[in-house]
Design a protein that fits this description.
Number of helices: 9
Largest sheet: 4 strands, antiparallel
Oligomer: single chain
CATH topology of the largest domain: N-utilizing Substance Protein B Homolog, Chain A
Length: 262
Amino acid sequence: METDSHSPARTRIRIRIKGPDFRLADQAAADVANSVTATGVRALGPLPLPSTVEALRSSSSYDELRCHHRLLEIIESKSQTIDALRRINLPAGIEIAVVAPEDPVAPVEPTPGEAPAKRNRRRDSRVAAMQFLYSWEVQRHGDIVTALYDFFGEQSQPREYYAFAEELIHGVIRDQALIDEVIVRFAQNWAFERVAKVDLATLRLAIFELMRRTDIPPVVTMNEAIDIAKVFSTDESKRFVNGILDRYAATLGRDPRKAEGA
């Protein structure tokens, strides 16, 4: 890395983290984020990417393994940042790769043989909001204005396209204490601290919608949250998320298939 005589060289670094254990992937992503931000640089993420199912073949068997992916982009890294990255000890099974900054933040590849899904603005906003809330849980950005600027600057559509996402993000952060009370109440026999971070972000998002957005039928909110959990989290997540949302929705006294006033 070349430098001039007046200032240190700076560059963007995009890092993908991969592992079969979502908790280790989350911890590695948090460790990387905390290590690099301690050097005084801004970091976008970590962001959850869609999980993948990979084949494990041997001479006598065929198994499938679900892998979890996280992405972190270091904005204007410097020499101290690189040194910090080299000092990080990763748990067994976790892989880290540096990828081109031009790669999309959250590629969602269609299943082989299937046509790409049509773009859905509300779905895109919910996914973006979940990703930001995951990142916010890890970093607790001191400057949310800059954090949102960095985040939406890397999305595939202009920031105004994600107006619904911004509304959800600000609402969840504002009402987080109340939302988390709901999760604790309805996560039967499951300690709050054990909830996967992707599931936590998804639940916070959906509970805010159920709580505050009575113009959206509850079943729409719940189905969207379950779909996000299926794509981004574990095999068990859809049942876990559905269980909590179903129990909470039953207390609202609303027709699950109708918006309020419809």
